[in-house]
């Protein structure tokens, strides 16, 4: 599955069968109750009119691994989060590492190890504590549901709301990262397990007026498979024991490399992509003789 083509199709569906609304007095084009199947090996949306932001993705992944809700660190990669801090604080709610990399993912793995056919391997992100007046960062992701059928690990991500440009673009590779991690953890118990489909479901999928023109440009592009990228994580970045996240040497080294690069003068997108290549196996399809690789034993 070519995720850029799927992303393009999402825009087309919103334009053709979606609605226009105006939450918080901002025009938005939206579509209700969507499901998007994603290949967790190829989760990047890359276009001529909107190149994938490797710098931001590397920074966001390091920020999640740090489980750091303070916006100062991620502010080195984007000023977006500083607009969403909680009242009288410098923190936000949607650091997904702080919400997932704990007993939530441990429950997922333990449930599936105990029963390969379990229907209880769910990790929750949005929580009742986020329902408070003045909350600018009401967590968009509700839960992740993992299930094994026909010896294949599938994952469903349920969103309450999803902006395709600010959210889906980076949600897809991050949740693919999580999907591959759970897969690697379970391979100890199920050596023949295969990586399945990541189903990205949203109650509301949308984009705002600021992106109307960009959406039109993307719709007009011809998407070529050889211009797309894939990733295969070679080893886990962390483990979870008794609800506590423990970074591996691989995970610690990744954060260190990202930190070192952001401190240099004018680091480039390619330099961040090179780090991601080294640690999560990001590679361009045109560099692979036989196309997109498959996860191997």
Overview of the structural elements:
The chain is an alpha+beta fold and 297 residues long. The protein has a single domain, classed as Thymidylate synthase/dCMP hydroxymethylase domain (Thymidylate Synthase, Chain A). It is 36% helix and 22% strand. The chain is built from 9 helices and 11 strands. The protein has helices at 3-17, 54-66, 71-74, 96-100, 103-114, 164-186, 212-219, 249-262, 269-280; strands at 19-21, 28-39, 122-124, 141-149, 152-159, 162-163, 194-208, 229-230, 238-241, 244-247, 283-284. Strands 1, 2, 3, 4, 5, 6 and 7 form a 7-stranded mixed beta sheet that branches. A two-stranded antiparallel ribbon has the order 8-11. A hairpin with a 2-residue loop joins strand 9 (238-241) and strand 10. The longest helix is centred in the middle third of the chain and has 23 residues, at 164-186. The model is unreliable at 289-294 (pLDDT under 50).
Helix content: 25-40%
Number of helices: 9
Look at the structure and give the CATH class. Alpha Beta
Strand content: 15-25%
Radius of gyration: 19 Å
Q: Can you identify the CATH superfamily?
A: Thymidylate synthase/dCMP hydroxymethylase domain
Provide the CATH topology.
Thymidylate Synthase, Chain A
Distance between the termini: 22 Å
The rough form would be described as: globular
Number of E-state strands:
11
pLDDT under 50 segments (min length 5)? 289-294
> What's the SSE pattern?
HEEHHHHEEEEHEHEEEHHE
The CATH architecture can be given as 2-Layer Sandwich
Q: How many domains make up the 3D coordinates?
A: 1
């Amino acid at each position: 599955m070519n995720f850029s083509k799927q992303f393009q199709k999402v825009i087309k569906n919103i334009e053709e069968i979606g609605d226009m609304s105006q939450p918080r007095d901002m025009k938005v084009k939206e579509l209700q109750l969507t499901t998007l199947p994603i290949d967790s090996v190829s989760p990047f949306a890359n276009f001529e009119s909107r190149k994938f932001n490797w710098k931001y993705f590397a920074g966001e992944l390091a920020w999640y691994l740090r489980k750091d809700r303070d916006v100062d660190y991620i502010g080195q990669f984007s000023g977006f989060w500083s607009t969403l801090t909680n009242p009288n604080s410098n923190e936000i709610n949607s650091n997904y590492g702080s919400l997932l990399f704990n007993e939530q993912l441990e429950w997922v793995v333990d449930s599936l190890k105990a029963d390969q056919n379990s229907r209880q391997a769910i990790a929750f992100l949005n929580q009742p504590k986020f329902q408070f007046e003045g909350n600018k960062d009401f967590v968009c992701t509700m839960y992740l549901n993992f299930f094994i059928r026909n010896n294949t690990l599938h994952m469903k991500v349920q969103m309450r709301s999803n902006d395709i440009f600010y959210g889906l673009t980076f949600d897809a590779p991050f949740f693919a990262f999580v999907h591959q991690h759970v897969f690697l953890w379970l391979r100890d118990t199920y050596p023949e397990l295969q990586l399945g489909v990541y189903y990205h479901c949203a109650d509301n999928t949308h984009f705002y007026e600021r992106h109307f023109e960009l959406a039109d440009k993307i719709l007009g592009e011809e998407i070529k498979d050889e211009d797309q990228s894939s990733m295969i994580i070679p080893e886990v970045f962390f483990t979870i024991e008794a609800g506590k996240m423990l970074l591996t040497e691989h995970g610690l080294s990744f954060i260190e490399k990202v930190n070192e690069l952001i401190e240099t003068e004018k680091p480039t997108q390619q330099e961040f992509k090179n780090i991601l290549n080294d640690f999560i196996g990001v590679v361009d399809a045109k560099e692979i003789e036989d196309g997109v690789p498959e996860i191997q034993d």
